[in-house]
Design a protein that fits this description.
Distance between the termini: 27 Å
Strand content: 15-25%
Number of domains: 2
CATH architecture of the largest domain: Alpha-Beta Horseshoe
Helix content: 40-55%
Strand order of the largest sheet: 9-10-8-7-6-5-4-1-11
CATH topology of the largest domain: pyruvate-formate lyase- activating enzyme
Structural class: alpha/beta
Oligomer: single chain
Shape: globular
Largest sheet: 9 strands, mixed
Length: 389
């Protein structure tokens, strides 16, 4: 199986109040050193040049926080190492307002064919509260600039259930986002993560989040407005026009293999999951020393593979493909999950068809509870072993 590639660029000009990804304030010299270390890691882990890959995703942080020279260095590294011209999708994350003509041209020249813009909300005051640097007008300017350079496969990322946000307020954001008539949209409920500004405010009782009922309303508005605009939901938080689903993210949800390069990046290759060091100085030092800045390697056995196949696959509205499950594991999923499936069908959370297993609308709302039922016990593995004797 041809793997995908994730590359993490951890630099930002501003740190958002909700973000818990591996990120650091941009420093020109540190970014230059980081790219050298990243190059050493990639060249150590992957032999040769123009290696075939399914998809490429440059995430962050904010990859477009790099200056022109650094961005070109990064794109050249990727172009030399991987067969960019034949990969199915090549995405870069970006913030509105981070682009100029030269950066947009660089992306186009080096084969990037998809841009994911972190818009979050169409409200300037709320953007300030989130710690975002861009404003609404930057979204319009950036989308226009990208289109001028024939970068039309654009995704807008939104966040809802924000502090002091109402369902009506979120509906305005959704309508303004849809007015761009773009091929892809993502929308995520705000999560309060440790070691963030919002987490500290939450602990002090200073963060006024909407009630759960209001959050459910927002999600219903999101689904309804997308459907009315011809944008189909294909995953719990993702919507697209037909043929514009995120191929890279489908790699994750299909439980397929991918490299992970950069500080804090994780990779998933046959039998193992790798997680890199997060602190930039430690990452740079180790990557320059031996090209292996790995913090830990987790063994992924049969139990973990099956569980993740269900957890990730059920995030897609199409669900878990039964034929693909059999081709991967050589037994039908009902062999070990029949009781769980029957119970979840009775709850109204699951649909079991001849071809797939997928969540109902209510099942999507109670996704975490559904997933818990697919954790395996040792006797389940024994049942699998007996079928293969």
């Amino acid at each position: 199986m041809i793997p995908s590639v994730y590359i993490h660029i951890p630099f930002c000009h501003h740190i958002c109040h909700y973000c818990d990804f591996t990120k650091f304030f941009y420093n020109e010299q540190m970014a230059t050193d980081y790219l050298e270390a990243l190059s050493n890691e990639i060249n150590t882990q992957v032999d040769g040049e123009k290696n075939p890959v399914k998809t490429i995703f440059i995430g962050g942080g904010t990859p477009t926080a790099l200056n022109h020279k650094q961005l070109k260095t990064l794109l050249e590294l990727i172009s030399d190492k991987f067969d960019v011209s034949n990969c199915e999708e090549y995405t870069i994350e970006a913030n509105p307002g981070d682009f100029d003509e030269e950066k947009a041209k660089l992306l186009k020249d080096y084969g990037v064919n998809r841009v994911s813009l972190g818009v979050q909300v169409f409200d300037n005051e709320m953007l300030k509260e989130l710690g975002r640097a861009h404003r609404i007008e930057d979204v319009y300017k950036t989308v226009e600039l990208l289109k001028q350079h024939d970068l039309t496969n654009i995704s807008l990322d939104l966040i809802y259930s924000l502090p002091n946000q109402s369902a009506e307020h979120f509906e305005k954001t959704v309508k303004e986002a849809l007015a761009f008539d773009l091929p892809h949209y993502s929308a995520y409920s705000l999560q309060i993560e440790p070691k963030t500004i919002f987490y500290n405010r939450h602990k002090k009782g200073q963060l006024h989040r909407p009630a759960q009922e209001e959050e459910v309303k927002m999600y219903d508005i999101l689904k309804t407005k997308m459907k009315e605009s011809g944008i189909q939901q294909y995953e719990i938080s993702n919507f697209s026009k037909k043929g514009f689903e995120s191929k890279h993210n489908l790699t994750y949800w299909n439980n397929d293999y991918y490299y992970g390069f950069g500080a804090g990046a994780s990779g998933y290759l046959p039998g193992k999951r790798t997680i890199n060091m997060k602190p930039i100085p430690a990452y740079i030092k180790q990557a320059m020393q031996d090209g292996k800045p790995t913090l830990k390697v987790e063994t992924i056995g049969l139990k973990e593979q099956i569980e993740e196949e269900l957890f990730l696959g059920l995030r897609k509205l199409s669900g878990v493909d039964k034929e693909k499950f059999i081709s991967k594991f050589d037994f039908p999923l009902e062999l070990i999950y029949k009781n769980q499936i029957d119970y979840l069908i009775q709850k109204g959370w699951l649909v079991n068809t001849e071809k797939s297993l997928h969540l109902t609308d209510d099942g999507v709302l109670f996704g975490n509870e559904v997933f818990e039922h697919f954790l395996l016990e040792d006797e389940d593995l024994e049942a699998i072993a007996l079928t293969k004797k």
